Amino acid sequence: MDKSSGVGVLDKAVGVLTALEAGPLSLAQLVSATQLSRPTAHRLAVALEHHRLVTRDLQGRFVLGSRLGELAAAAGEDRLLASAGPVLAALRDAAHESAQLYRRQGDVRVCVAAADRPGPGLRDSVPVGASLSMHAGSAAQVLLAWEDPERLHRGLSGAAFTAAGLAAVRRRGWASSAAEREDGVASVSAPVRSPAGRVVAAVSISGPLQRLGRQPGRLHAEAVLTAASRLSEALARSA
């Protein structure tokens, strides 16, 4: 390690994370990369795994965990939210439906920004700060579709959608749902990506099923993709 903070266990843990930047490592490879003893490297990797800073791939090798992506997303939240207002307003005006921005927090997705459809008539209103399930809805599909295989598999347990459905989301770049999260509500969502390409949020429109229909993507996928692209570009400019 090039620099010491004076807190030995922290320096060693950071050394493990730094070694894993290069890609998956077996325990033997981790020992070689960090120059830690085998028991110490194993103990630290397992402790980091408990906090989701490290996970394991299908071959049992240690890899960087999803919690790091969540922390990175949280660090960029202010930049994301600073751009969200006008983008969601433009999406709402283009689709004539309520627009939302969701971020995943553990086992739920949280609405961090919204622009409601104005005026009379039916609409779907999601309050900022509302926590919704990761088991249903187009935004949940988007936030899960690009996860690592292990977390994706866990997320499918009890979900209203399937692995094949998420594969289709990845192919076309957007998701839709009809009466999946709530009876009578349809939605379309697309991923917002960090400069590194990681999905950090989902931008959505939602409204009554009777207006959006059973295939709302035919009407609104293009507008939602445009909004997602604008937010991703805003993150890239501020990086």
TrEMBL record:
<dbReference type="InterPro" id="IPR036388">
    <property type="entry name" value="WH-like_DNA-bd_sf"/>
</dbReference>
<dbReference type="InterPro" id="IPR029016">
    <property type="entry name" value="GAF-like_dom_sf"/>
</dbReference>
<keyword id="KW-0805">Transcription regulation</keyword>
<protein>
    <submittedName>
        <fullName>IclR family transcriptional regulator</fullName>
    </submittedName>
</protein>
<feature type="domain" description="HTH iclR-type">
    <location>
        <begin position="7"/>
        <end position="66"/>
    </location>
</feature>
<dbReference type="InterPro" id="IPR050707">
    <property type="entry name" value="HTH_MetabolicPath_Reg"/>
</dbReference>
<dbReference type="Pfam" id="PF09339">
    <property type="entry name" value="HTH_IclR"/>
</dbReference>
<dbReference type="GO" id="GO:0003700">
    <property type="term" value="F:DNA-binding transcription factor activity"/>
</dbReference>
<feature type="domain" description="IclR-ED">
    <location>
        <begin position="67"/>
        <end position="237"/>
    </location>
</feature>
<dbReference type="GO" id="GO:0045892">
    <property type="term" value="P:negative regulation of DNA-templated transcription"/>
</dbReference>
<dbReference type="InterPro" id="IPR036390">
    <property type="entry name" value="WH_DNA-bd_sf"/>
</dbReference>
<dbReference type="InterPro" id="IPR014757">
    <property type="entry name" value="Tscrpt_reg_IclR_C"/>
</dbReference>
<keyword id="KW-0238">DNA-binding</keyword>
<dbReference type="GO" id="GO:0003677">
    <property type="term" value="F:DNA binding"/>
</dbReference>
<keyword id="KW-0804">Transcription</keyword>
<dbReference type="InterPro" id="IPR005471">
    <property type="entry name" value="Tscrpt_reg_IclR_N"/>
</dbReference>
<dbReference type="Pfam" id="PF01614">
    <property type="entry name" value="IclR_C"/>
</dbReference>
